[in-house]
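residues and backbone:
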Amino acid sequence: MYPYVKALYWHRVAHELYKKGEFYKARKISQKWARKTGIEIHPGAQIGEGFFIDHGHGVVIGETTIIGNNVTLYQRCYIRWNWK
C-alpha cells in the first residue's frame, strides 16, 4: 500500500477531531503518521477528494493549506505564496 494512502486516511480522521476542537488528539495522530510515512499533513489542512501524492517522503502540508479535488502532487514540488 502506498504511504500516501495511510497518511491521507489518518489525516481525514485527525481533521475531523481538529474541527471538533480536539487539537491535541489530532496533532498526536498526524505526528505519528508523519513519522511512519514521511508525509506530514497538519490536521487543519483542507484536502479535497481524489488527492494523490507521488513519492511523498518529505512532503509537508501546512495548517492553512487548501487543496481542491483531483490534485496530484509530485516529489520535489514546491509551492510558494507571497502574501501582501
Summary: The beta strands are 39-41, 46-47, 52-53, 59-61, 66-67, 72-73. The CA atoms of residues 13 and 43 lie 9 Å apart. The chain has a mean pLDDT of 88. The first helix runs from residue 3 to 19.
